[in-house]
Amino acid sequence: MIPAPAKSERQALEQSAEKADSRRGLLISLPSYLYLVLFFAIPFGIVFVYSFATRSRTGRTVLEGWNLDSYGRLGDSIVREIAFRSLVLAVVTTVVCLLASYPFAYYIATRRPAIRNVLLVLVMIPFWSNFLVRTYAWRVLLGTNGPISQLSQLLGGDEIRILFTNTAVLIGLVYGYLPFMVLPLYASLERMDWNLVEAARDLYADGWTAFRRITLPLSMPGVIAGSILVFIPSLGAYVTPALLGGARTTLLGDYIVGQFLSARNWPYGSALSVAVMVVMLFAAVFYFRAGAKNA
Amino acid sequence: MTVSAAIRPKSPIERLLASNSWLVFAFLYLPILLLIGFSFNENRNVGIWTGFSTRWYGEMFQNNDVMRALRNTLIVALVSTLVSTALGTMAAIAMERFRFRGRGTLDGLLYLPIIIPDVTMAVMMLLFFAQAFDLVGGFARVNFGLGTIALSHIAFNISFVAVVVRARLSMLDRALEEAAADLYADRWQIFRRVTLPLIMPGVAGGALLALTLSLDDVVVTSFVSGPGSTTLPVYVFGLVRRGVTPLINAVSTVMLVASMVLVGVSLLFQRGSRSPDQEEGLT
Predict the structure, then answer these.
(1) What predicted TM-score, i.e. pTM, was given to this entire model?
(2) Predicted ipTM beyond 0.85
(3) Do A36 and B158 touch (CB under 8 A)?
(4) Number of structural domains in chain B
(5) What is the mean pLDDT of residues A160-178?
(6) Helices (H) and strands (E) in chain A, counts
(7) Within a domain: residue B126?
């Protein structure tokens, strides 16, 4: 029998193995670590720094005379109006997606496995298809002489004029982000132990009660994940409002882009970006907290 | 299946669920199908159908701007997918299999690019490159172009690859790797012969996601592209803002069909690479 090494010796061995492991881990992560520091953390820092800089009369950003003016402008009524409009739109998009997706995901999750997989693929295909093109399709559909308007006139109705309104943006956002809601909902419903529902029914719960007390709480992680996944890109959306929205109903994404590409007020645009990122971070923290609680 | 048994009778609720689902499917597919249909419309006016024609596809292939943008798109997508898949996979392995100093920071760095909207990502990259060019401007001739686009795409793609590969790694049975170690495989052999083959579907899925995001991106690319380095989505976006033309319909259809084929192939591929016991676990 090999004598067991002395306690301190074993500890030293374990420690050095741990150290070697730690070194190895750091080495493997190093390329992505360096990349993300250089091309993500530092850019983030630059935006933060720029948000305190001044803008010269010619539109150049001057990295001196640090001030809080850009943040002061965040309280302006125009910003409040744009932020509120974007927030309402993002919330409505999320709610519409949730209401349409929950029964949809429930239906898919309760099919036979073979059918379920086919239906799931049918959801995945638009999800993976080009976002710009899918949004563009609505531009064609909703045009004054587009198919929807023609159909309406054929049926004796009026021309449909919703392109370049927030209704069109809402349709575009729901269309674009619906799969983001369906997939997490489906994942949480599919994982669910349906015996619990059966047990509830055995205990004389009616269908609605069983749903409200068992299914809904158990699928809550999916509801929260899906809502965050829809809400975040909706709030910062740029492409959809640019293609389907009107010039008079500016939204947050468009407003920020404008500060860089047309107004050339980089400090103000940076401050807006920082503010949006803070909101997103809060949403994400809420998401992870909720996820941890439900796991 | 207890599920089907519980809801087998065709209740009104069941019917309601089914009709809602068909409505959602119609909502998802009708716009796409109509767009494809309209791309074969011969009329210059998009809304009025006069006859079947492929003339817009012919024009598309003869349009130098479209072809250059297509070439740019493919170069950027390929480079950024390859690099971000390699880096993202390495990051995922480090995060799932090792404890090291700075692990928490990397975790945060990996999640942030997913959380923030692309508009803010675009702003970050623009300011970063503008500032960097300001600094090195005296030493080298550098400017916005395909390089800055690819570097920016890699920056957001690493995280998405890492998330997908990590999900796969966390499902992996550690016992398989331990068994290999018991059979005197060294670390590299374990990775090469056990871990990598098992996470390959995750790596492929991550690469596909990176490729899709790169081919999709409009906002970040338009912020960091230079003269002559426009990608196809940015080019189309610019055209669409000016109005709807049949040429855009044709280009859009090609982009759409290309992404659908990509997904179809990858789904088939992933199905083929799934081992029987996993298949059982999934159903």
Answers:
(1) 0.88
(2) yes
(3) yes
(4) 2
(5) 91
(6) 15, 2
(7) yes
